[in-house]
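Extended Data, panel c. Modelled sequence:
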Amino acid sequence: MSLRKLFTTTALALCGLMMALPASAKVNSFTITAGPMGGDWYSIGGAMGEMAKQVFPGAIVTVTTGGALANVAKVNAGKADVGLSMAKLYAEALAGKGKYEGKKQENLRAVAFLAYIPMSYFLVKADNPLTSIEEIKAKKLPIRLLTSKKGSSPSLAAELMLAQYGISFDDIKSWGGSVSFVSYAEASNLIKDGHADAWVGPMVSSIVELTTTTKMKQLTIKPAFLDKLKKDFNYAEVMLPKGKYYFVTQDTPQMAEAVIVITQKKLSTDEVYQFTSSLMKNAARIQGIHKTYSGFDPATAWQNVGGPLHPGAEKYYKEKGYLK
């Protein structure tokens, strides 16, 4: 065979091989929808944004504020590529149940489980005469209550928890109180300055900071109500060990949710595989954001997600031997 023929044959073979291989499309933009400013989710979103820049060089990476409920809708609609949410909401969205009754969200898949997060801290200042959540209804107290932004999982959890006591947000307003949906930083400042009475939601960084500058106490949820929340709304239960915070004076059960990363079902296997790989390689970044996430483990990140994994994420976990 002449050198020219050999070159031509080799070139054609290489072209055929290249055509047979899946092409890695260039990612021009990548949007992450996280949580309210002042919260851990916003910090996680920022960290994931830096990871995305590493694996998608040249792409315009954007991190936006959001919440667990809103993020499901944004990712499903293609307004964000990945987002933070909760396993229970992901399961309900796929099934068209709960907040998504009759409106299935089908452009969703899971990437990773990050942590269980207690949702129902009910905190008031230590000198507040209120001793139980039941008192609010019994005395129709005009409490000034704060929870997270509308469209967030904490605000939904607060609403459902209070409903177990026969209390609605409208009830509180009718008794002369108020319900405000604010950022975590705003909640900290409002209670510190005496402009609000109670916080209902998770112990994110801004709320932890509040408890270090202002003496607080916790009103605990009734175990029977926690059981009902588990049965009717798929919440998990975690135990807050005595001393976790100074106001946890005994081992206390809490309603909790599984924090997960979701993505669009429509995204390519390669794109989600690369993002998942970067997220797992940078696990220490997530673990260091708050002690809630200190147990984040790539080996078990495929579990507890509430529904199917994206093929790109599944490929990563199988490749590492985590998922058989």
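The first helix runs from residue 3 to 20. This feature is highlighted in the accompanying rendering.
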